[in-house]
Design goal:
By secondary structure, the protein is mainly beta. It has one domain: Immunoglobulin-like, CATH 2.60.40. The chain contains no helices and 9 strands. The strands form 2 sheets. Strands 1, 2, 3, 6 and 9 form a 5-stranded mixed β-sheet that branches. Strands 5-4-7-8 form a 4-stranded antiparallel β-sheet, with no helix packed on it.
């Protein structure tokens, strides 16, 4: 679906599924091609409520360019993102799976950009669930 690279990290988006309940689940893989362990700390973002998420996709967002709206990652009542947390990091040369959930853009909006701090934007297609 989409693949972006930055600073030795490759993020691949495998699926983006609009689900009942008004949210989108995006999943894929991240590969660490750096010379050491990668912990994902730079992907947390700078929102205070998300600081406790550790290395995770907490700073990710979806951008609907046509509707001119940004959708921030969903979180539970304690401020934890509904996303993968890279506990212990990702070893050099390893690939791990990830997921992230966002509020769904309006029906009919099927192309958005996934934006993750330090990574180039990835244009993705939302499938109906």
């Amino acid at each position: 679906m989409a693949s972006v690279k930055s600073n030795g990290i490759e993020m691949v988006v495998v699926s983006a599924l609009r689900e009942e309940g008004g949210f989108v689940t995006i999943s894929g893989t991240v590969t660490n091609n750096t010379s050491g362990r990668w912990i994902g700390a730079e992907w947390i973002g700078d929102e205070r409520e998300l600081e406790g998420n550790g290395g995770s996709l907490a700073g990710a967002s979806l951008m609907d360019g046509d509707g001119k709206k940004r959708y921030m990652i969903l979180r539970d009542t304690e401020g934890r993102c509904l996303c993968t947390k890279f506990q212990g990091g990702v070893a050099r040369g390893s690939t791990v799976e990830w997921f992230a959930q966002f509020p769904a853009p309006p029906t009919g909006t099927d192309k958005v950009q996934l934006q993750v701090p330090t990574m180039p934007p990835a244009t993705i297609q939302i499938s109906e669930g």
